[in-house]
């Protein structure tokens, strides 16, 4: 009886609903490895067979504070774990504490198993470069509009452009700052990518 209680205490679990329709995605950290159940599929991946983890910040319209962990197995298969769960048609609930605890414990167990997984955070380098290029083009266009509004003495238009630029910088700035591509170690998880 005590053995089964100790084993149950050693299991850390997390679940979320990726969509309104469908079953929950369930994950558990067991002594043997990462156990997962997604739809009709399931598996158990030993910690030393996990080849990569990418942590990122992925806001959506229904939830501006959403984080994601992409876990890759040595076979090339990949699963995603999100920090939010669909509750109703209009509500996506954050699960910050459970997500953070699960991801921190996953890293601790991988380190204990001697994992050599590649740990990265943010977007991929190509995607990040594309985001920066798009932002640079948008900045040039907005600056051109602002200069034009000031030249023709359209101060209301200039104020609107400045207000829109400030709102846009506030909304997109956090996404760009948090998702800068970088590597990290098992003992130094990126705090900006954990809720």
TrEMBL record:
Keywords: Membrane, Transmembrane, Transmembrane helix. This is Bll5862 protein. The chain crosses the membrane at residues 126-149, 155-176. It comes from Bradyrhizobium frederickii.
